[in-house]
Amino acid sequence: MKVCLGGTFNILHKGHELLFERAFEDDNQVYIGLTSDELGRKNKGVEIDDYDARKKTLESFLRGKGWEGRFTIVTLDDELGPAVRDDYDAIVVSDETRSGAEAINYERKKDSLKPLEILSIKMAYAENGEVISATKIKKGYMDINGKMMRKVIVSVGSENQVKLDAAEHVFSKFFRRVQVKGLKVSGGVPEQPMEKEVIEGAIKRAKSALTEECDFGVGIEAGLIWNEVANKYFDVQYCAVIDKSKRITFGHGSGFYYPSVLIELVKQGRTIGQSIEESYGIKDVGRKMGAIGYLSKGIFDRTKLTEQGVLMAMIPRIRRELYEG
Question: 2-138 — its CATH code?
Answer without folding.
Answer: 3.40.50.620
